[in-house]
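ok so I'm stuck.
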Amino acid sequence: MKKTLLSLLTTLAFTFNLYAENMEMIDTNGTSYKVIGTDNEIKIEGMEGKVVFLEFFGLNCPGCKQIMPNLIKVQEKYKDNLQIMAIEVQKHDVNPINAYKQEHGINYITLSNYDVGRVARYVMEKSGWEGAIPFLVAINPTGQVQFAQAGVMSEEELTKYVENFSK
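replied:
not stuck anymore, here's the structure
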C-alpha cells in the first residue's frame, strides 16, 4: 500500500513538473517564435543561450518612452548575449508599431498584443502583473525567469542584469 501511494505521488509530482504551456508569438516583421512556459521558465525558440527581456509597453505610455533609449543602448551593447522582445499592449496593430519602431530607432524585436497569443495572459497569471507598463520580465540564458518588475529601469540597472545573467 505504501509503495503504491508513494508511486502515485511520485507520478503526480512528475506529471505536474512536466506540465508546459505551448504558445506562439509573431513579431511585427512576421517571424514566428514558439514559446514554452512552465512554473518558473519561459523558453523562446531561437533565444537559447541569450538573456531575454520581455518588455510590455505602449505607444502612448510616457514611462515606456523613458525606458526605450535605455533598452536601445543595452540591446546594442549586448547584441550577442541579449534579446529584447517588446510586446505592445495598448491594442495597436502592426503598422503603427512598425512606424513607431522606425521613428524611434528601436533595434529590438517588437510584437503586437494581437499576435502574441496566450503569452501576455500567461505572464500576467504567473507574475501577478496587473497591466502597469512599462513591465519587464528578465529571463536567463537557460529560460529561468529571474524577475518581473513594473516601472522605468536605468541603463545601469539593465546592464547589471545582463552581465549577472550572462555568467
